Amino acid sequence: MAVISELTILQPADKEQIDLPRTSEEELAVGKKRLYIESYGCQMNFADSEIVAAVMRNAGFATTSSAEEADLIFLNTCAIRDNAEQKVRNRLKHLTGLKRQKPELLVGMLGCMAERLKTKLLEEEKVVDIVAGPDAYRDIPKLVEEAESGQKAVNVFLSREETYADISPIRLNSNGVTAFVSIMRGCDNMCSFCVVPFTRGRERSRDPHSIVREAQELFEQGYREVTLLGQNVDSYKWHVAEGLGQRVESGENQLPHALTTVPSAPTTFANLLEMVAQIHPDLRVRFSTSHPKDITDDVLHTMARYENICKYIHLPAQSGNSRVLRLMNRTYDRPWYIGKIDRIREILGEDCGISTDMISGFCTETEEEHQESLSLMEYVRYDYAYMFAYSERPGTLAAKKYTDDIPEEVKKRRLNEIIARQLEHSAERNQRHIGQVQRVLIEGPSKRSDEFLCGRNDQNKMVVFPKGSHQKGQYVDVLVTECTSATLLGQVVSH
Ligand code: SAH
Ligand code: SF4
Ligand code: F3S
Description:
By secondary structure, this protein is α/β, with parallel strands linked by helices. It contains 18 helices and 21 strands. The chain has 3 domains: about 20-155, 3-Layer(aba) Sandwich (Rossmann fold), CATH 3.40.50.12160; about 180-430, tm_1862 like domain (pyruvate-formate lyase- activating enzyme), CATH 3.80.30; about 435-495, CATH 2.40.50.140.
């Protein structure tokens, strides 16, 4: 999954989105106490903060966009690399100062770093009052009460079932046009470098009906794009018997017992994608992240069938070398990955946007193996990439089995080579669009000037154009006339 707060290369879409002002609905929410939430890490964490905001609103808290005004501050944290955790630690230093001025202020740590460090966080960071892992968000009001009574409060239990399916998220930092919808939680993959299976627990899928309902409601509220989120969306699976079981339990849709036991094919990701795409042709559908071992032709054909499913796939390679991929426990090799890229281009055409995640300097990676990452990039010519130097995470398979033996400066140099190559490819892939007319969903004013609007094309590229009389939430056709490595520029030709 794309990590929002730590981009090594510009991802215009996310950059534009993050700094937008909050909705007035959220600011006007009635509540006695004020909650400020700051999110780090991937889109799933940002989506989780919206669930937390909903849980807290029920408990009488309103959200605020000012940390200084808040009675309660939550940091929804990421543990993916050491620098992600350092960023949060620095932020806690600032909050320590704030708490000195306002001793009744409560500080909670949520998310993956909270899950990873558990009670150790309370020992190491005195400013923290509450620690809640990703599956403990329903319990937060109780934890807050405990903290209000002067105790430290912790819940880091991971669940096999929790999907927060019934909670309608409160959209934070929303542009009112695009929204994230979580379709599953956790990860069962155990890539050797990755902390996520430890911080988010076992993979579980969310009831498709609750997903479709959420997307439908978003559409009715004026949203025009949903991004379906999971660490590995291609392994989404929902068994009908499971679904009926859950609904019978909650007392809704009671069905004769015989029906609950009729075996029926599970809902796959391709099925789910289709269900969401059918809500309305004007509702765009995106998804992230696809795993090269699991993405199926079925998904690609579904994408091809529906114009409103965006032709863009985030397919993280991590490395271009088969030996390194084996050590990473990615369960595919270079030829398999290339085969998937070829399938995408066969079924969806050359214009389908493709992005990746790349790690430089994984344990024992040789110079030749690093060159294979570069040559894979040459082969694919990605539209974007999220690129990282390997950061050993305590407790992961790699930390246990291999030595983190590539010197920092070598990791950095390799990373810089990867970044330089990607900049060339991003520019080249953007230039392809010059002279083309692109369908753009308007997300709001451009960051640089109110005279311009911006929105993304199918391939997730930010397109900037003069405002005219157009409004956010509309679709327009833009003739692309110029580009940078991060943005396309053009003029509206029709809408
Ligand atoms: N589920 C997604 C990835 C989620 S983590 C997938 O399988 O692709 C986002 C990205 O962070 C990963 O794709 C990987 O490139 C990077 N990452 C994860 N652990 C890392 C580590 N220990 N050091 C450096 N980068 C890491
Ligand atoms: Fe981490 Fe691998 Fe799961 Fe992605 S698929 S979250 S990289 S373990
Ligand atoms: Fe996401 Fe970071 Fe957790 S990338 S899943 S918030 S470790």
